[in-house]
Every structure is written in structure tokens, then in C-alpha cells.
Write a structure and sequence with these properties.
By secondary structure, the chain is of the alpha/beta class. The chain is built from ten helices and 14 strands.
Length: about 300
């Protein structure tokens, strides 16, 4: 009798079943693509583990002992059940259904919800998405998350990073903020009323590049009167006329479209910020995760440039 703490390699059972089928070690070895000595060794290992003799060996043929005849149907059942499980598991991996858990920053998550998820969920009716929104990077080695949209850098070289595109930050102010709209050069920002992305410090260094023409780059130290760790709040403050905000273009676009915001120093913007889709090695083999990765690679580059 096999102890509860012992296990049997299914390869040993498979070898036994093939020998029982052909009643020949030579034929079984040919079928399995193994040497005769390897088949004999595996049979010996199985008999040793079970502590019974399964086969009577003659010079050219073998026959089953009573114990061998008892084991054969059970071994065939175990191997068939294992094959069914493997097939079911592979089909489950390939199917696009179930829940994909995603991490993103708040504003980029809102962008995804408005522009990416509608087409994704329409294409895959059995797919569900749960998204965690925060500025800090979640640990993708925790299996609670499948994917993360990361802006700027991956910050973990153990992850796979799929570059999806890039965006720039632009300078905006409220439509009625005539003082902010009157700026002519990046250097004017040093004395301007600005809004900074911060929950502690009201000083920032803004790096700006010329959009077209002669390539120039400025780094300006700005001093704000209002600091907020949230781009949506900065957009609202700028729309209310509280000063100049430096916003991701996808955050500023709705206000620019409805006229509550206008561009400041339109020839200048921040250097491009890369957008990555990050995930653990191997997770892309899961069908539902692969569907999101493929859809993001297909749709987001154009959406980020819109």
C-alpha cells in the first residue's frame, strides 16, 4: 500500500500502460520513444514504489500479474482524467472570459474608462474589468493584479513592459484668466501664478520644449499658490481662473474642447512621457489578459495622439 506522503510519477503509470497494451517492452519503448533500458528502469521504479510485482518477464514477452491486472484499469482511468483536466485547463486559458484586474493612475484610468474600455468590453462580451486607481505603483508580483498602465517608467525590471505610446503635458489656464494668457516666453512662468501637482511643496521645476521650429529647451523654477496631488483638481482650479496648470494633454482636452480652458505658450510643452502596459512574465498566456494586452496595443497608440 502506498503511503499518503508518497507520490507516483504519471510517466511511470504511462509506461506501465503501454507495456500492458503491447505485452512487450520493446514495442512499448518504440511507442514511447524511449530506450528499452529506460522502460525497464521505469517499470522497476513503479513496482518498487507500490511494493508489488506487476509483470512477469519472459525472454521475449511479458504478462500481467494479478496485481498488474488490478492496476491497469485504474492507471488508464487516472491518465484519462489527467488528460481531460489538461485539455480543460488549456481551453480555459485560451478563452476570453473572466475578470482582468488592472492598476492605473486616477486620470489615466478615467481616460481608459471613457475611450478604451467601451470598445474592449463590446468586443469581448464575457470579459470583466476591475480597476484600482492610485498614483503609487501597485506591486504586480501580487497576483491580485494582472496588468498595470504605468506612465514614465516601469520601475521594476522584473516586469514585461509593452510601450503603447506617449503624451505631453501642456500649459493651460481659465478662459477668462487674461493675465496668464498674456505670457510670451517660458521665462515669464517664474513670476506667474501657477498651480503645482503636489501635496507638500509649492515649488517645482518645469521642463518645456518647443513643439516646432528651432529645438529649444527651458527649465523654469515655478512657485505656486495652490498645490494639489490630482490633475483633475488642477484642471478645475485652472478653469476657475486660479492660475496656470501643467496638465497631461488627455486631461486638458475636455476643457479645451468646451472652452473652459485655453492653452498658454502654445509653442511649448513638456517632454513626451512614455506609457507602458506592465505585467508579470507568463501572465500574457491567459486568454482574458492577452485580449486586453492586444487591444491596448492596437487602440491606445492612436487614442494617445488624438
Amino acid at each position: 500500500m502506498v503511503s499518503e506522503k508518497r507520490t507516483i510519477d504519471t510517466q511511470l503509470l504511462r509506461t506501465f500502460v503501454m507495456v500492458a497494451k503491447y505485452l512487450s517492452i520493446t514495442a512499448a519503448a518504440d511507442s514511447l520513444g524511449l530506450a528499452k533500458s529506460a522502460v525497464s528502469k521505469q517499470l522497476g521504479a513503479l513496482e518498487s514504489q507500490l511494493q508489488v510485482r506487476l509483470l512477469e518477464r519472459a525472454s521475449r514477452r511479458v504478462s500481467l500479474t494479478n496485481e498488474g491486472r488490478m492496476l491497469l484499469p485504474r492507471a488508464e482511468s487516472i491518465l484519462a482524467e489527467l488528460e481531460h483536466f489538461i485539455n480543460d485547463a488549456q481551453q480555459e486559458l485560451a478563452q476570453v472570459r473572466g475578470t482582468v484586474r488592472i492598476s492605473a493612475s486616477p486620470e489615466f484610468g478615467a481616460f481608459l474608462a471613457a475611450h478604451f474600455f467601451p470598445a474592449l468590453l463590446q468586443q469581448h462580451a464575457a470579459l470583466k474589468v476591475v480597476m484600482s486607481l492610485q498614483y503609487r505603483y501597485d506591486d504586480l508580483h501580487d497576483p491580485v493584479f494582472d496588468l498595470a498602465f504605468r506612465l514614465g517608467s516601469l520601475q521594476d525590471d522584473r516586469l514585461v513592459g509593452r510601450l503603447l505610446g506617449e503624451f505631453s503635458r501642456v500649459l493651460v489656464c481659465g478662459a477668462n484668466d487674461t493675465r496668464s494668457r498674456a505670457l510670451n516666453e517660458p521665462a515669464d512662468l517664474a513670476a506667474a501664478n501657477v498651480l503645482v501637482f503636489s501635496n507638500s511643496d509649492l515649488e517645482e521645476s518645469w521642463v518645456l520644449e518647443r513643439v516646432a521650429g528651432a529645438q529649444r529647451r527651458h527649465e523654469i523654477k515655478v512657485h505656486g499658490r495652490l498645490g494639489v496631488q490630482g490633475f483633475e483638481a488642477l484642471r478645475a482650479a485652472a478653469s476657475a481662473g486660479l492660475g496656470i496648470a501643467r496638465l497631461p494633454l488627455f486631461v486638458a482636452t475636455p476643457g479645451l474642447a468646451d472652452g473652459t480652458l485655453v492653452r498658454v505658450l502654445q509653442e511649448w510643452q513638456s517632454p513626451p512621457v512614455p506609457v507602458y502596459l506592465a505585467f508579470r512574465p507568463g501572465v500574457s498566456r491567459v486568454g482574458r489578459v492577452r485580449a486586453v494586452i492586444d487591444a491596448a496595443a492596437r487602440m491606445l497608440p492612436a487614442l494617445l495622439q488624438a
